[in-house]
Automatic annotation (TrEMBL):
<feature type="domain" description="Response regulatory">
    <location>
        <begin position="7"/>
        <end position="121"/>
    </location>
</feature>
<dbReference type="GO" id="GO:0000160">
    <property type="term" value="P:phosphorelay signal transduction system"/>
</dbReference>
<dbReference type="InterPro" id="IPR011006">
    <property type="entry name" value="CheY-like_superfamily"/>
</dbReference>
<dbReference type="InterPro" id="IPR050595">
    <property type="entry name" value="Bact_response_regulator"/>
</dbReference>
<dbReference type="GO" id="GO:0003677">
    <property type="term" value="F:DNA binding"/>
</dbReference>
<feature type="modified residue" description="4-aspartylphosphate">
    <location>
        <position position="56"/>
    </location>
</feature>
<protein>
    <submittedName>
        <fullName>Two component system DNA-binding response regulator</fullName>
    </submittedName>
</protein>
<keyword id="KW-0597">Phosphoprotein</keyword>
<dbReference type="Pfam" id="PF00072">
    <property type="entry name" value="Response_reg"/>
</dbReference>
<dbReference type="InterPro" id="IPR001789">
    <property type="entry name" value="Sig_transdc_resp-reg_receiver"/>
</dbReference>
<keyword id="KW-0238">DNA-binding</keyword>
Length: 160
């Protein structure tokens, strides 16, 4: 199975599972960084550009839903997939209503996980066309240069 190159953050308080999942995703062509707590995951997000977060639901101190809420404060729209060994339909419904991209139960089926990752990345990919400029009416060369600079900066993880 071929996947788009993407940088994934895995958050789980089980180091063994974290390592296993990291190896599996790396072998599929993804770049992976791991964190053993929600707080550590937030620190990683502050220093690295990540395309997607995969988090365990039940962790000490900060669970997966609390982590999701914190991520949305600093990076709205960041796709998050929640994994849990204790999944229930009400938990899954609540998570997706709050904006979690996918809610999968452990042991997670690898094909279902890969599909969820690919779907999340596809849905969150920035539009490469110029539709965003249609509403801006200008012919000023200076404004056109500024809009082009804004487009380039918007695609990076640089603070302005």
């Amino acid at each position: 199975m071929s996947h788009k190159p993407a940088h994934l953050l895995l958050v789980d308080d089980d180091p063994g599972l974290l390592k296993l999942l990291g190896l599996r995703l790396t072998s599929e062509g993804y770049s992976v960084v791991t964190a053993e707590s929600g707080a550590e995951g937030l620190r990683v997000l502050n220093r690295e550009k990540v395309d997607l977060v995969i988090s365990d639901l039940r962790m000490d101190e900060m669970d997966g839903m609390q982590l999701f809420a914190e991520i949305q404060k600093v990076q709205p729209g960041m796709p998050v997939i929640i994994l849990t060994a204790h999944g229930s339909i009400p938990d899954a419904v609540a998570a997706t209503q709050q904006g979690v991209f996918s809610f999968l139960t452990k042991p997670v089926d690898k094909d279902a996980l890969y599909q969820a990752i690919d779907d999340a990345l596809e849905q969150s990919a920035p539009a490469t066309d110029e539709r965003w400029r249609e509403a801006i009416v200008t012919r000023s060369p200076l404004m056109l240069r500024l809009l082009e600079q804004a487009r380039l900066v918007a695609q990076s993880d640089v603070s302005v």
